[in-house]
Design a protein that fits this description.
The chain contains four helices and 26 strands. It is of the alpha/beta class. The mean pLDDT is 94.
Length: 256
Amino acid sequence: MSIHPSAVIAAGAVIPDSCTVGPFSTIGPEVVLGDGCVLISHVVLDGRTRIGAHNIFHPFCAVGVAPQDLKYGGEPTATEIGDGNTIRESVTISRGTVGGGGVTRIGSGNLLMTCVHIGHDSLVGSHCILANAATLAGHVVIEDYATVGAFSPVHQHCTVGQYAFIGGGTIVTQDVLPFSLTSSRRENRAFGINKIGLARRGFTAERLAVLQKAFRLLLSAKMNTSQALEKLKELEGEDVALLTAFVERSQRGVIK
């Protein structure tokens, strides 16, 4: 185990021998680290925090800290992080609250760029990218393979669907359709499918063609959402079924 002499580690913290703890880092008594984690320097890990293997924490990030919620009274809530995440400089991740389920959870293989904030009780899937200063208010859900652009705040209780791409500077106040390319010019709009991103993820031309047809029905046809959903159900494929189910369960409405 490599622990710098200036690091402060509370009794009770679990740190495998394969981990590296850099200078001026602090680790709280209820933190459990997985194998091969690296804390470069000035990292704060606090609260009831469970972290998987091979995560990299860059300087001045704060993980598992108390939520920015005036209702929080020090209850023993949690933060859970999977494997292979890169958490860059000055990222803040708040632990959960009793009223929100009690846990903030992050999957595996994510890139959280500089100054990202993940609020209490948020759920981030796997293989997501949150660009510089992307901000998740409490209770936000980011599904797998989604990208949130730089300086994009996401409102409480919003869901960003699988494979969605949100352009930089977009203020998200409704759910973001899976597979979509959504951005803000004068107003938030979905501009169709995230074609380049989906192709990079291995989507075939056939899958893309079906999704494009589905999005034309949902976004461009002269139908309301209910009418478009009926037409979507006539199309075949798991991707369209996922898209349809996402719209049907949305509580805040979707960006179209």
